[in-house]
Amino acid sequence: MFTSLHALKSLAIEMSNIELSIIIPTFNGARRIGETLHHLYGQKIDSPIAWEIIVVDNNSRDETASVVKSFIDDWRADCQLKYTFESQQGAAFARSLGVAEAQTTSLLGFLDDDNWPAENWIDEVIAFARSNPKAGAFGGLIHAELEGHEPPDFNVMKGYLTIVNRGGKPFQYKRSDKPRRIPPAPGVVIRKQAWDEVMPDPQKLLIGGRNANTMAAGEDAEMMFYLQNSQWEVWHNPKMEIWHYIPNHRLEKDYILKLARGYGLSNHLTRLSRYPSWQRPLVQLATPLFTVRDLIRLLYFYLKNWTVLQENFGKACRLQVGIGQLWSPYLRLYGWCHRMMLQGSPQKIVGELPNKIYSLALQKKCI
């Protein structure tokens, strides 16, 4: 009986015009995805629309599939909840599959499995999209939803945890702005037409998603820069609010320091993604200059602040960012050295480093 009702509801939604497809990639998200789905189920939509949610299981090894499927048959009538599986690891691949399976020709919304949208989030997405037809992408405010108490250095941690509040007035993220900015990835909405016109296949992205070894990431920023480099506008809409759930273990200082290092390690590839493909070889030629500049900055910062690094967590994080930036043009080499150190093989690094550098140079992947 439930299966028949679900099939009839799916058919009715498929025959209607899907205005919004929400894509949620998840990896081992059995303990997180349920609360996110509860917040989507509770959406209060004043102007009825047809919409759908696509949960993309990115090779999970827990009970993610069972949790999602437990919601499907008893889901709300104006929305179809779908589960799909992507075996190739990486958020970019999961998002790409979600887009491929989306029925919308209008809007794509992207949430992480720990993002809780406000009850009017969909209403505000639709209203802004209809009022700003030239907006190819737009994001909003991201608040923190902490599992436990707020730690003393939380204001320092916010940026690394993607807790972002850029004010209560809408504005356009312009390519000419200094510094150049883009909306944060959680809760961003992209027009399907803009996605089809601008986004490359995941295999062609410079940044493949967060690396568990180095904590380097940035594929979300790369995609936003592609949009910002196009004729589409990119906007901030403060009426779209989500809460980012943060468990206690992600507030540990060692974890934040790793995130800060990863943020720095993403610097070079993120820098490249800001430029059209024909300009990137010229940027690559300037790599030695970037390295010298970053080394001077890092040494200056360390000499100026070394006496306070133990008690000043903000400066300790900035030091890690600087170290990451210095290594960022040589990310593959850094990753290899990091793995050797984790394996307790410093002698192996010394012995094999020249061969590794030569190998990467031949592959043209060391810068």
Fold and architecture overview:
There is one protein chain. Strands 1, 2, 3, 4, 5, 6, 7, 8 and 9 form a nine-stranded mixed β-sheet that branches. It is built from 15 helices and nine strands. The chain is an alpha/beta fold. It is 45% helix and 17% strand. It starts with a helix and ends with a helix. It has helices at residues 2-15, 33-41, 64-72, 91-101, 121-131, 154-157, 192-198, 219-228, 253-265, 267-273, 280-285, 287-305, 313-327, 331-342, 346-363, and strands spanning 18-26, 50-57, 79-85, 107-110, 115-117, 135-146, 171-172, 189-191, 233-246. It folds into two domains: 2-251, Spore Coat Polysaccharide Biosynthesis Protein SpsA, Chain A (Alpha-Beta Complex), CATH 3.90.550.10; 275-363, no CATH class. Helix 12 packs antiparallel against helix 13 and helix 14 runs antiparallel to helix 15.
